[in-house]
Design goal:
Two copies of one chain form a homodimer. Chain A is an alpha/beta fold and 422 residues long. Chain A folds into two domains: 5-225 and 398-410, Aldehyde Dehydrogenase, Chain A, domain 1 (3-Layer(aba) Sandwich); 232-374, 3-Layer(aba) Sandwich (Aldehyde Dehydrogenase, Chain A, domain 2). The first copy, chain A, is 43% helix and 19% strand. Chain A has 14 helices and 16 strands. In chain A, the strands form four sheets. Chain A has a seven-stranded parallel sheet, with helices on both faces. In chain A, strands 5-4-3-6 form a four-stranded parallel sheet, with helices on both faces. In chain A, strands 1-2-16 form a three-stranded antiparallel sheet, with no helix packed on it. The termini of chain A are far apart. Chains A, B: Its EC number is 1.2.1.41. Chains A, B: GO terms for molecular function: glutamate-5-semialdehyde dehydrogenase activity; NADP binding. Chains A, B: One of its GO terms (biological process) is L-proline biosynthetic process.
Chain lengths: 422, 422
């Protein structure tokens, strides 16, 4: 490139800002037309996508990329099917844009309410999985936003091929090409530029490892929707039905070890620990889950002594820390201190304690008699998610179309004046 | 003080975080008891408040503070009445905390909904008006948040005296003293510390001049709820009823020159400019408002030629810039380019153009046939406001109790498991 990375990113940003005005006022039908056309383009471009992906895979192998990363990078026929299906699902979701709520008359005679509108331009920064290109682009487009996508350099050919299909979709619906832009350079300075243009970019959504997200959050001059860790807890109360509690705790850990909603620490009321833990030990041991426990846990079952560090570790692996607590109070304290404000559950039949847990645990999702692995946009009925936010401002928990929009006030009068009405 | 400012602020932060857990689960009755008791304490402490305020006023006079600032600093009996009344009004507002909405069953059998909860700890940084201490403390307390208040050094005695009354209120309701803390040092490093403690402070609300807010937004490591400018527009469409449009435009400018919702630029469709502007010129000239116009404006009425800078200036004074535009398209372009995304209005009877204006103007409040000066928490029915946000994430427009809270997900099951249900 003869232009500098900064100039290039500024050009992308300016084009995105202009396109965002058009996409913001595009009709639902027009946006859906683009999504369906992109799905057809993907279906027609399978050979093209596979060839592009082969370039990335070959380069990855040559660069000694780990097998797990190579696997994430691979665009298998099933994953292409998944992208096509994803586009159709997003097209089927209700359009949040333009919804007006709570219009009510004020004493002055004006009507005041709120209208849901797109955020504007969304920058997505992500790592190897090329299917994120489709997920992110489709959710942003459906919610009326323009997007700038910055995937990992290891997936650049795949992302370009996917972007070409999205472009065909946009063209078919007569939407501007700059509504979805893929950063074409692998220069790292592009990320720095993307997160420092508040005049062109309204929000950044980083998806990837904790290191990436921490770096971006620290350096960004644009708001960031993010989550860092999922250190999720299940607390088994003295009044839990134990078989239910065992099933919930087992599912919370073993549904999938690698998801952010997986339970990392099990808390048990001391009153039921002796009755509850041995059966759990058997289930987890049979499944190959390593157990690390506090002193009271180790007195009841076979477990490695847990260190202080265990309580604040997101294993994302078949390892579980277990702590016996004095009761609800200590469980809430433990979660608010060591947790990551992601998702935490209580298992109990005691109404009062359930109510207190749900109110006082300071996490983006709080659950009663349900495993933490349910923390997911599909399971919550959002249709799809762009990520899970553990921040408190704006979106909290799984972020779907609504989290990619905001509400502005709408005031309707008929010539009412301030300070001059009864 | 023997401890460093950083240690002092850390101590305040840690105490606020601990208190925030208590305030978050305080009952509505308990919070209201504190607000009413604080109102009684203010009423009983009038002499004390006046004496403390006299110290600040004397120091201000000695330091050559401008008369306008001295006026803002003064705690007159009427202003003390206002603070007492404000506390009672906030007590009368509905408590947003704990409200659960949209609980619905998912195919898996779990119920998913959202619960409104406090943000946690709110830092308020403000300038001379001591009554902000009461406004901010009462809104934060009612919404279940702990607050750290950092007023201007010129109001330190007044703020301390007010804080003492708030403390009496908290004590009467058996709420922790650290629920509302006033920073006792006038050292500027305290601000730097307050905006750099994400572990103790969840959001910063700066109130004051543009310089203060820009500085804080730039340096903060904590999210900021803010607005910088109120460059508000009224656009008079070709299908406006002219007497209505004239009354709206006049009120938008002259209700009060110094509020952020005051109109700074009047846009007029060229089709009605000749019929509309001369009467406006007469009204504004009689009122002493200086007019600055584009070339087409100056051809129709007496006005100083407007410079490019005028379009992006918030006068907060009896000065108005006027531009004749080709139509709706150009009006929207002008507003999105030169405006500050605060509040903008269209005057028209044309349904289609009204609809387009409301959808496409990218401002925190958009208005139809109403003057921009209505942009205000009381007028919108929020009861009170902590500020007006022109940001897009989280709260947008006037920020009341709801803007000081967020929603977390609540999931209720009865032992449902993921991946194992029909």
């Amino acid at each position: 490139m003869t232009e500098s990375v900064l100039d290039y990113m500024t050009r992308l940003g300016r084009a995105a800002r202009a396109a965002s005005r058009v996409v913001a006022s595009a009709s639902t039908a027009q946006k859906n037309r683009a999504l369906h056309a992109a799905a057809e383009a993907l279906d027609a471009a399978r050979a093209e996508l596979t060839a592009a992906n082969e370039l990335d895979l070959a380069a990855g192998r040559a660069n000694g990329l780990e097998p797990a990363l190579l696997d994430r990078l691979a665009l298998t026929p099933a994953r292409i099917d998944g992208m096509i299906e994803g586009l159709r699902q997003v097209a089927a979701l209700a359009d949040p844009v333009g919804a007006i709520r709570d219009m009510s008359y004020r004493p002055s005679g004006i009507q005041v309410g709120k209208m849901r509108v797109p955020l504007g331009v969304i920058g997505i920064i992500y790592e190897s999985r090329p299917n994120v290109t489709i997920d992110a682009a489709s959710l942003c487009l459906k919610s009326g936003n323009a997007t700038i996508l910055r995937g990992g350099s290891e997936a650049i050919h795949s992302n370009r091929a996917i972007a070409a299909c999205i472009q065909r979709g946009l063209a078919a619906a007569e939407l501007p090409a700059a509504a979805v832009q893929v950063v074409e350079t692998t220069d790292r300075a592009a990320v720095g530029a993307l997160i420092s243009m508040p005049e062109f970019v309204d929000v950044i959504v980083p998806r990837g490892g904790k290191g990436l997200i921490e770096r971006i959050s620290r350096d960004a001059r644009v708001p960031v929707i993010k989550h860092l860790d999922g250190i999720c807890h299940v607390y088994v109360d003295a009044l839990a039905e134990l078989p239910k509690a065992q099933a919930v705790a087992f599912n919370a850990k073993t549904y999938r070890y690698g998801i952010c909603g997986a339970m990392e620490t099990l808390l048990v009321d001391q009153a039921v620990a002796a009755a509850f833990l041995p059966a759990m030990e058997q289930m987890f041991t049979e499944k190959g889950v390593e157990l690390r426990g506090c002193a009271r846990t180790c007195a009841l079952i076979q477990a490695t002594p847990a260190t202080e560090e265990d309580w604040s570790t997101e294993y994302l692996a078949p390892i579980l820390s277990i702590r016996v607590v004095d009761g609800l109070e200590q469980a809430i304290e433990h979660i608010n201190r060591y947790g990551s404000h992601h998702t935490d559950a209580i298992v109990t039949e005691h109404q009062g304690r359930a109510r207190r847990f749900l109110a006082e645990v300071d996490s983006s999702s709080v659950m009663l008699n349900a495993p933490t692995c349910f923390a997911d946009g599909f399971e919550y009925g959002l249709g799809a998610e762009i990520g899970i936010s553990t921040d408190k401002l704006h979106a909290r928990g799984p972020v779907g179309l609504e989290g990619l929009t905001c509400e502005k006030y709408v005031v309707i009068g008929d010539g009412q004046l301030r300070g001059q009405n009864a």
